[in-house]
Amino acid sequence: MIYEPTQAIDDDDATDDDDGVESSADVVVNELMADNRASIFDGTGSTSDWIELFNTTTERVDLEGWSLSDDWTVPDLHVFPQGVSVEPNGHLVLWASGVEGLVDHLPFGLARGGEAVGLFDPEGRSVDWVQFPAMAADIAYARTRDGWEDWSEVEDGTPGSEN
Questions:
Q1: Which of the pair, 21 or 88, is modelled with greater confidence?
Q2: CA–CA distance from 74 to each of 68, 80, 112, 133 (Å)?
Q3: Band of pLDDT at residue 24, cut at 50, 70 and 90
Q4: Which of 1, 57, 118, 148 is the most exposed, having the fewest neighbouring CB atoms within 10 Å of its CB?
Q5: Domains located in the chain, CATH noted
Q6: CB neighbours of 30 closer than 8 A, spacing ≥ 6?
Q7: What's the Rg (C-alpha) of the chain?
C-alpha cells in the first residue's frame, strides 16, 4: 500500500494565506507522531509516540521551567528541569511514552484518534497549542517547514531533523 498524505492543513479558514509564514514563538511544537509502531525507537528500544520541538531563533533557548502537556487545564504535566535547552535553529525530540521521571520522556501519550498538545512558558502561558487529527500508524503531523504555520501528514516523519 502506498501512503498518500492529506493536503497541508492551514490553521485558519483562508486558503494558503500563511504559506511560508514562520511562527512568532521562539520555540514551537514542530512535529509529532501519535501512533509510532516502527518509524523510530527511543533509547530503551521502544516505539513510543514522540513530539519534536524546534527553536526558531539563532540563540540557544533554555527550557528550564517550561512545560509540555496534552491537557489545556493542566499545563504543567511535564516541566523541564534545569539543563534542558534547544540549540539555535535546533530540534529536541521528546518521547510521549507515559513514563515519568525521565528528562526526555513525557508522562503522557498521544491519542492516535487526534487531540492537542501544547508548550507553555515558565509563567504557564501558552506558547504553542497544536490540535492534530486522527493519525495512521507511522505517520507524523509536521509543519511543512520548520517553524512555519502550515501542517501536513508525513510518512515516518523527520524527528530531530529538518522538515
A1: 88
A2: 9, 15, 20, 21
A3: low
A4: 1
A5: 27-155 (2.60.40)
A6: 52, 53, 54, 91, 142, 143, 146, 147, 163
A7: 15
